[in-house]
Structures are given as structure tokens and as C-alpha cells.
Design a protein that fits this description.
This protein is mainly alpha-helical and 482 residues long. The chain has helices spanning 35-54, 70-96, 98-122, 126-147, 150-166, 169-198, 200-203, 214-250, 261-271, 275-304, 310-344, 348-362, 374-400, 408-447, 449-455, 457-470; strands spanning 14-15, 479-480.
Length: 482
Amino acid sequence: MSKAGYGTVAAQPEVYTPTNWEKIGEVQAPTYKDVPFAIAFLAHLAVMIYIRCQVDDPTPLIDSDVEVTGDQYGFVVVLALCSVGFAIGMFYLIQRMALVLIQASIIGSVVFSVFIGISMIMLGNILTIILGVLCILGSIWYAKAAWKYAAYSAANLETAIAAILDNLGLCFMGIASSAVSLLWTVMWCVVFNAVLQGDKCMNNDDDDCDEGGFSILFYFLLLISYFWTILVLQYIVQVTVAGVIGTWWTAPAEADSCCSTAVIDSTYRSMTYSFGSICMGSLLLAVVKALRATTDYLRDQQRSSDEPNAIVGILLCCAECILRMLEGILEYFNQWAFSYIGLYGYSYLDAGKGVVELFQSRGWTTYVTEDIASNVTFFGTLMTGVLTGGLGVLLNSTSFHLFEDSEDASKDWIAFGVAGVTGLVIGGIMMNIVSGAVNTVIVCMAEMPDELQANHPKYSQAMRYGWLKAFPSCGLKYDVVV
């Protein structure tokens, strides 16, 4: 293997040795999968819309005399559009400096941990000294363990972002999905508030009412409704991204423009044939999230009670721990299952079984947990927020002149805060698309590395170099001509 660093590998002449791996997945016939779950989701949505329509004059969700003006709306819209540009600029920056940014993030985390450790040691308490030393040693161990994965994660990021930049329509779909999520949140809050106001149990208007009865049931069902819809919107985007990455990987001529054939076709498939599978996976996770939220609510009730029950408190604490673990397992399973659904059109359970079989057949069951690209996507989100915040201060002082009732220094901070939050939201949406694309790149590399070499040799070479540097026994080939 060449000793050249990542980023210079493309200049090394090589002979490509095909892997000739047997493909595990097969493109499925365009039929509707997991239909009962799609019907159940649409029926639940119809019920929620019906309840909302029955609320003639909803009680204000927030009691406030503050009025939002048209100029303030315009300020946020302009900043949102600019933050999209900043986020796309971060794509280019990350693609060109992926390895440097990943290594910098590792070093930064060590420096921060060492600072915290030294601060704890300086307190002089024996316990804080021990914790401080452990913090420093832990950070050094993390850096040593993570450093060898830097080229691997950089290659995944570079390839994923290259596919996104060729199909920028994915970003606008992500923003549209988030806008719908916001509208759904507002509508759900109105429905929740109406149920809250109309439920005698919740308002304690009936002395004979059992507070643990229908009120908790309403609360639980409404939470399922909220999380289910939010997750469906989120996973529609992920499945669409996976489909586009797969097309870019195997047929790049169909995935080479903003609104390419790949973007349109993949969006259509995720909202039709795969919609039931998305609803099924989302429902499983939504139930767990709703159970967790309900458990948190019951724990808060226990803490605020005049006579808390210790046994109930312990049971609720155990239940919350179990639900947290189950939630993490389902989120991890879904990210790979939905990538497989987007690539091949499987049903939810078949996709999960197929992707597990794929990683097991390649011996990659531990490799897929070692990606540290999230450090860089967080950096991209943060920088988008900071740049948008700075632009907000500039625009407010030169064009919009908002927040005039505040002092000069306060105006700048308010403008920076509003603009920064807008940038963080948009940046987070855009970087989540990158995270979904990275997952799909890992699946595609396990499934069909030869196709990447045939269609994108530059990225294929970088991927194989990075993967073999981290996982020498992964089965890929990298033969450099001497």
C-alpha cells in the first residue's frame, strides 16, 4: 500500500483488482410495501386534521403581547436563504478539507478534555483529582483509537458530499420536509391544547376522576401521533437520499443535476412504494419515544408529589433506562434499514434483515460503528450558524433596522441570536442529509465497490485507501504500480 497521505492518493498509478463480491441486495419490483402501516398513518393524520378543524378559536399557545412584524418575517426569510448558501459553501469546504477537519476535531476534543481534567485536578479534592486524571487519560486513549479512522471517515464524507453536490435538489427537499414538520408541530400543539382544555381529568374538575386514566392515554396517543409524523417526514428524506446515492453510484448520468432524474424518481418511490415501510419503521420508534416521554412525565409527577413512592420512582427510573437503550437500538437499526429501502425498495423487515446479512457476509459488523464524520457535520452546522449570525448583525444595521427599542449593543446581540438560530436550524437540516448520505455510502461500498471504481475512480481510490488504512482485513484491494 502507498505511504502517501490521503488526498494525494489519486496521483498514484494503480491497477484495480475487482472484488467480485456477490451482491446481497436485489432491486425489487415497484410494488407497494407494508401497505397497512401507510393506511394507518394516513387515517391517523385524517383524524388529527378533523380534530383541528373542530377547534374554532384555539387558545393561544403562548400568552404574549409581542407582535411579529412583516419586516421581522422578511429578515428571517432572507437569512434562511443565505444560510442555505453558507451550508452549501460548507459542503465544498468539508469535501476539500475532510481529513484536516476530522483530525482537528480529534485534537480539539483532546485539548478540551485535558483542560477540563486540569481544572478538576486544580480543585485539590481527591475525588476531583482522580476524575481529572481519568478524563485526561480517556481523551488520550480516544485520540489514539480515533486517529486511524480519520482517512476512512474523510473518504466517506468526500464521496457522500460529491453525490449531494451533483444532486442539490436533495437539500431543498430536506428544507421542505422541515417546513412541513414545523407546520405539523403548530397544528399538533393546537390539537394538544384543545384536548388539554377539554379533558376534565387533566384539569382536575372532577373529584371522581382517576388522573392516571384517560388523561395519560390521551397524552400517550398524542405523543405517538407527533413523533410518528415527524419521523415519517425525516425518513422520507433519508430514503430519498439513499436512492439518489445509489443511482449516482451505479448510473451517474441519471444523477448529475439539481433536479436530476434520480432525485425525482427517488422522491416518488419514497412517497409511494416505500411509504408503508417508512411508516412502519417510524411507528416502532415513535412508540418508544412516546413511552419515554410518558415515563419522564410520570417521574416528574412523582418528584413533585407530596408523598412520593420510592418503589414507583425506582421502577420508572429503570423503565426510562431501558427505553433509552431501546430507542438507541431502533435509531441505529433504522438508519441502515432505510438506506437499504432507498437502494432496493425492500419492505421494512426485509431491508433490516438484508443489511444485517450484508455486513455479516463482509465481516463488517464492527466497522460501521467507527465513523467519526459526525464531528465534522457538527462543525458545518455550527459554522453555518455563526456566519448567518454575523450576516444578521450586518443586515440589521444597514437595511432592516429592527429591535430599535433595545440598546445599541443589545440590538446586535438580538440580531445575532435570531440569525444564528436560523442558521443552526438550516445548517442542521443540510448536514443531516450528509449524515444519511454517509450511511448509504458505507452500504454501497459493502455491496458494490466495483461499480464505484467504474463510474467514479477518483472517489473509489480514496475510499479503498481510507478503508484499508483503518480496516486492513476488510476485503478491499488497493494495488499501486511501482
